[in-house]
Specification:
Elements: H1 3-16, H2 31-40, H3 43-59, H4 63-83, H5 91-107, H6 114-134, H7 142-164, H8 170-192
């Protein structure tokens, strides 16, 4: 995949996300489609999941693949906790903090060991997964719903990776870091209720 194709893919994903609410008030029916749309229609989820791919791309190999694999795996665990009714405190705060912290990691060009980055991503994935699991509509199949939100999450990570691929050029590195800053600011907006 060429850099131009990756950048166009990222732009398409950013454009098609639309303004919506991530929560199940949208009335979408069906297990997979409802699960797929849940992370895509919620800006709080979108920016954090894009940030995971963006940070992975910024860190390079092996983080470029480890972080986007860790997130959905741990997110599925968090989703299972939500489905089972296991309480996780401050879920919405954790989701907002995920955007702030991950955005700041990119903006500050933070380069921790890959296992530290994976732990940071994994901790935040629990909050995102729990939100998905607790909002699982009773009428849908939990397996297909979970598959839908894991696939959508992977696509959002890929859009972050595509945008992050620009970091291989000096001007692209500035844009990627600026993107991280914008993600952190959006997360702050979610945390304070401004957004």
């Amino acid at each position: 995949m060429t850099a131009r194709t990756r950048n166009m893919t990222a732009a398409v994903f950013l454009i098609i996300t639309g303004v919506a609410n991530a929560h199940e008030t949208t009335g979408l029916a069906g297990g997979f489609s409802s699960g797929f749309m849940h992370p895509i229609l919620g800006w709080d989820h979108v920016i954090a999941m894009v940030a995971v791919g963006l940070w992975g791309a910024f860190l390079g190999s092996p983080a470029i693949w480890i972080l986007p694999v860790v997130f959905p795996l741990v997110m599925a665990f968090g989703g299972a906790l939500g489905v089972m009714g296991v309480p996780v405190p401050a879920v919405e705060t954790g989701i907002a903090l995920s955007a702030i912290v991950l955005g700041l990691m990119v903006a500050a060009a933070a380069r921790p060991n890959v296992w530290i980055a994976a732990v940071v991503v994994g901790v935040f994935a629990i909050f995102h997964g729990h939100a998905h699991g607790t909002e699982l509509p009773g009428a849908v199949n939990p397996i297909t719903y979970s598959l839908g939100f894991v696939v959508a999450t992977g696509l959002l990570h890929l859009s972050g990776i595509a945008f992050g691929a620009m970091a291989q050029w000096p001007a692209g590195k500035v844009l990627v870091r600026a993107g991280g800053g914008m993600i952190a600011l959006a997360g702050l907006g979610f945390l304070t209720g401004i957004v």
